[in-house]
Design brief:
Elements (H helix, E strand, L loop, with lengths): L1 H35 L11 H11 L9 H5 L3 E3 L25 E4 L6 E3 H10 L11
Antiparallel strand pairs: 1-2, 2-3
Length: 137
């Protein structure tokens, strides 16, 4: 009976080792695919130097921002002034201009910071984070 238990555990350990080896092999295959196919490159995982090298090889900018369709999904609204006149005027922290009644603005969903639509759209072409609090958009 002791021999059967030892054989069972040895077989179980062998299957576990095979499973780990398969996982490692799969990770290595995925990593080599990413290295071989530049379209699979994730700029968010790159160092500054790697971004510069990629930019140079592409002959242009490397965007770390949102895709145009993602930017367009952020709802736009019309600015209405705050009810408290003693409060300092609200301003767009991208261009530092005060919001004016009737201007088109966008409020980021996660952090609720508000910007002129044109300002934040341009910002988000290159960045995926809020300019004020650095939260992911």
């Amino acid at each position: 009976m002791m021999g059967n238990m030892f054989e069972f555990r040895a077989g179980e350990a062998s299957r576990e080792a095979e499973r780990r080896e398969q996982e490692m092999l799969q990770k290595a295959i995925e990593e080599s695919r990413r290295e071989a196919d530049p379209s699979q490159v994730n700029p968010d995982d790159m160092t500054y130097e790697q971004l510069l090298e990629l930019q140079e090889s592409n002959g242009g900018d490397v965007s770390r921002g949102l895709k145009p369709a993602e930017i367009m999904r952020i709802p736009q609204k019309v600015w209405r002034s705050k009810a408290d006149p003693t409060k300092t005027p609200d301003q767009c922290t991208v261009c530092y201009d005060n919001f004016k009644y009737g201007e088109k603005v966008k409020e980021l969903a996660n952090c609720k910071h508000t910007y002129h639509s044109k300002c934040i759209d341009k910002w988000l072409q290159n960045e995926k984070r809020c300019p004020v609090c650095n939260q992911m958009v």
